[in-house]
Amino acid sequence: MVKRRKWKTPMAAAGLALWLVLGRASALPQALDLAAEAAQARRDCVPLLLEFATTSCEWCQLLEREVLDPTRRNPDYRSRAHMRKLLLDGDRMLRDFDGSLTAPQHLAARYRVELTPTVLFLDTEGQELAERLVGVGLLDFYGAYLDRSLEQAAKALRETGRCAAAGPVSSGPAGADAPPAAGAD
Questions:
Q1: Is residue 180, in this structure, part of any structural domain at all?
Q2: How confident is the model over 62-84, as a mean pLDDT?
Q3: I need a labelling partner for 33 at 20 to 30 A (CA). Which of 42, 98, 104, 143 fits?
Q4: Residue 165 domain-assigned (yes or no)
């Protein structure tokens, strides 16, 4: 008589579910080509939000899981910024704003990033537009700090004319002060 292990499949499924909930990788896309990201941000007239992180940074993972990933998936924020992550402990080169290849560590040195996570709000040329967010601090207030910096960045884009869009940049959630999108009901 062959004994079947009926517990294997449910245990594997439970383990996978637990891994997906607790240990899943960030949904925040990695920055690989800042020139292309900047071009898209220019077309959309939004800042580029760039998180400097490391794979072993537990605070980075917490920030992404609790704030940045949900914010990026929120339709109200999609029109406010392009969000990308830059891993400092990788050996993968990336394309800089001017199109040249650079190491993530060189970018961190240029921006004087000394602690992870650090979140920058950049224009299409890589210039900082708003107050950077360093560390996590009180997670309960991070959303408010993020909103404040996004509003500062949007205002700086409007005032300097550093975007391709003819209309104003929304400083609030999508639709708050912007006309409805074409085809919207």
A1: no
A2: 92
A3: 143
A4: no
For residue 22, tell me if it sits in a domain. no
CATH number for 127: 3.40.30.10
Do 67 and 137 meet the contact criterion of CB atoms below 8 Å apart?
Answer: no
Most trustworthy range by pLDDT among 26-35, 126-135, 172-181: 126-135
d(CA 38, CA 46): 9
pTM: predicted TM-score of the whole model, two decimal places: 0.74
Q: What is the pLDDT of residues 141-176, one digit of tens each?
A: 999 999 999 999 999 998 887 776 544 444 444 333
Q: How many domains does the chain have?
A: 1
Residue 38's domain comprises 27-160
